[in-house]
Amino acid sequence: MSAEATNPVSAADAAVTDTTARRRGRARIDLRRLGRAALLGATAGPAPRDRLPDAISHVAEAHRAHHPDADLAVLRRAYVLAESSHRGQFRKSGEPYITHPLAVTLILAELGAETTTLTASLLHDTVEDTEVTLDQVRREFGDEVAYLVDGVTKVEKIDYGAAAEPETFRKMLVATGDDVRVMSIKLADRLHNMRTLGVMRPEKQARIAKVTRDFLIPLAERLGVQALKTELEDLVFAILHPEEYENTRRLIADNSHAVDALDAVAEQVGAVLREAGIGAEVLVRPRHFVSVHRVRLKRGDLRGCDFGRLLVLVAEDADCYGVLGELHTCFTPVISEFKDFIAAPKFNLYQSLHTAIAAPDGAVAEILIRTHRMHTVAEAGVVALGNPYAGQEPYAGPTPPTGQRALAPDPQPEDGERVDPTRPGWLSRLLDWQQSAPDPDTFWSSLRAHLAEDDEITVFRADGGTPGTISLPAGASCVDAAYAQHGEAAHGCLGARVNGRLAPLSTVLGDGDTVQLLLSQDTPSAFGSVSGPSPEWLDHARTAAARIAITGWLQAHPEAAAAPADAGPRPQVNVTADRRSGAELHADLEGEPAAAVRPAGCCTPVPPDEITGFRVRGGSVTVHRAGCAAVETMRAVGREPVAVRWGDTAQCRVTLVAESFGRPRLLADLTEAIATAGAAVVSATVEPPSEQRVRHTYTLHLPDAAGLPALMRAMRDVPGVYDVSRARRRRTAEPREA
Predict the structure, then answer these.
(1) 223-278: per-residue pLDDT in tens?
(2) At the N or C end, where does the chain have fewer CB atoms within 10 A?
(3) Could you give the CA distance from residue 453 to residue 473 in angstroms, rounded to a whole number?
(4) Per DSSP, what are the bridge partners of residue 503?
(5) pTM for the whole structure
(6) Are 278 and 270 a contacting pair, CB within 8 Å?
(7) Is 154 exposed, middle or buried, given 0-12, 13-18 or 19+ CB atoms closer than 10 A?
């Protein structure tokens, strides 16, 4: 699926693209041949019923390669309707318009799409650009095809004006939520349009390329359709960054034989696997333009192996690890390049083992290891999954109005979770928050931010609710988890417990964390009464759902954004900060907003240290030891101290660092000294010895903070220990927090 002759790249570039296409085994689409075949079909009348029209025979060939038993009669009927309805229409490049739906259908056929998707792709522009109605499509091809065609049909610009494009995307995404094949057709449609964009004005090329970059390429990535994503990236790169593209094109052309180095490595890898008795296919995959550009930025001057990667295809999952073991045994592996996406698949269905080995000339050869099935899904993503509703009842009822959910099959078990492997968590979250977007501009900007997220994490609910997990983008905070779990009820969220410990709502969550959200109705009164979110929550919200909900509440309650000057004093807040110290900390906050109080990580104060506090970003109070260097830094930048004090609780948690010379039984002797002093070990780490010196870090729980000096003396008395100190972070950590 290389670029057409009419796309915005040069003839020299086309030669490079042809070489890449041949290596990848992809067929080129000859638009002029398709146009001639379409015109001949129009003048000579319909083809006999026992064979397909010439213009669609290549689509049938590609389709039968993936689905040998496919019924092609429906494709013939769809082509006849599309050709007759588009007859007399021409694209700006001069070809008959029917060449566009044919090219889109061929793209999907090569990816392995099933017959219903191909039927809808042939008809995808008929309702929008011809006299054919959706009811006519439904009568002749069924509700399923009609739903797919309606999903990719644009809304009328006369009805929506400037909001037509975002509302079209909204309608398409809602339709995708019920049938992901809608987005498959849209991506193939945009790919062919991008291939033939060279006939457009430069400013229109740039506008379409930017929308493709911001919305469709991320969607292709999230749906796992790498074959479409990589070509879209190259076409956008050529339009929006012509100088960098030309430099990359020239670099690839000047090194057209560089991949020969990978051929030599491929032969060695193949020989090793044959000797080990592992049946595998070893292929050389040249990098596409954007990939070469990224590698050049990362590594500087490129060597032969940098222009491509090796792909090893095997039959079974277990063989993937067998190949990995042989490669790491017979070659020098680059451990930092190893990634296991089989045991932990990416959120877009991608599975593969990634590794790298040192080539004989010292260059690094990257290798991908996967099964043939994994490779099909890696290239075609959700397209390779076929019809997610196969074997279920067909669509029932009319196509819903624009913006409403479809009456498509939506099987749901008792827990309400949709049974559809092609509908990932990010799509479900998108469908949830788009309903709350108050206007097209908010939806458009929120969608761009939503699609910019690169990865997902999964956190567990501590309350045992259903579902037991929450999917969030990487970097999400407790604020995002609150709105993902409770919706608008999260307005009353006062805090959270992360992995069993009290944490502020600004806490960034990690993959696998356990989260318990504390709402106003089930939180102890010590937290005070909070009626809604504060503006600072927007600083910590990563998801569109959280940001839209918070913004909507603040707009409806403008008094919350800035409390009036004559407002009465806020209640004092006493927070047990057991997350770091285990001791009670109290802040005197008369007349100031409520806040969480926590010890600073730079100096880890514990009773009976002399302490002082400062307001930091998000409104919380960070407590430092009086002698901490960060105190002077805070005062120097004009931060006013907040009066803080220790509570009545004598217990505390503290982290100590023991520096020692290495010797046998050192760890046992240190642990015994700690236990004798009455402290409990919460966690302990021992760094690898360096120049016969060993660094031990202990987090300890003391029943009485007054015993800390005696504990430190007892640890120093252990033979070989030459220093014991309180743990402290580098000073750079505190200004980032402030």
Answers:
(1) 888 999 999 999 999 999 999 999 999 998 888 787 788 888 999 999 999 999 99
(2) C
(3) 6
(4) 496
(5) 0.60
(6) no
(7) middle
Place of tokens 């960060």: 630
Task: Assess contact for 496 and 464: CB atoms under 8 A.
Answer: no
Among 18, 50, 71, 128, the one annotated catalytic = 128
Residue 260 designated active-site: no
Annotated catalytic residue, options 4, 71, 114, 129: 129
Q: Locate all alpha helices (DSSP H) within 541-665, ordered by sequence.
A: 544-556, 558-561, 629-636
Report the length, in residues, of the chain.
738
Contacts of 65 (CB under 8 A, 6+ apart): none
CB–CB of 146/99 below 8 Å? no
The pLDDT tens digits of the residues spanning 25-60 come to: 444 444 445 444 444 444 334 444 445 556 788 888
Among residues 170, 200, 249, 152, the alpha carbon closest in space to that of 7 is found at 200
Residues 6+ apart with CB under 8 A from 720: 660, 661, 662, 663, 666
For 487, the token pair is 């919706």
pLDDT value at residue 19: 39
Q: What is the pLDDT of residue 570?
A: 37
pLDDT band at 505 (very low <50, low <70, confident <90, very high): confident
| pLDDT of 532 over the 70 cut | yes
CA distance 51 to 536: 67
Mean model confidence pLDDT for the chain? 76
Residue 41's pLDDT is what?
Answer: 45
Amino acid letter for position 376 = T
DSSP for residue 564 = -
| 128 given a catalytic annotation | yes
Contact between 683 and 709 under an 8 Å Cβ cutoff? The reply is: no
Q: In whole angstroms, give the CA distance from residue 496 to residue 494.
A: 7
User: Do the Cβ atoms of 304 and 251 come closer than 8 Å?
Assistant: no
Tokens 């790298």 map to which residue? 356
Task: Give me the phi and psi of 184, to 5 degrees please.
Answer: -60, -45
Nearest to 593 by CA among 619, 611, 575: 619
Give per-residue pLDDT as tens, 328-366.
999 889 888 898 988 878 777 789 999 999 866 677 889
DSSP readout, 644-700? Answer: EEE-S---EEEEEEEEEE--TTHHHHHHHHHHHTT-EEEEEEEPPPBTTEEEEEEEE
Confidence (pLDDT) at 44: 39
Name the strand (E) or helix (H) holding 201.
none
Which residue is listed with tokens 């788009």?
434
Amino acid, single-letter form, for residue 116: T
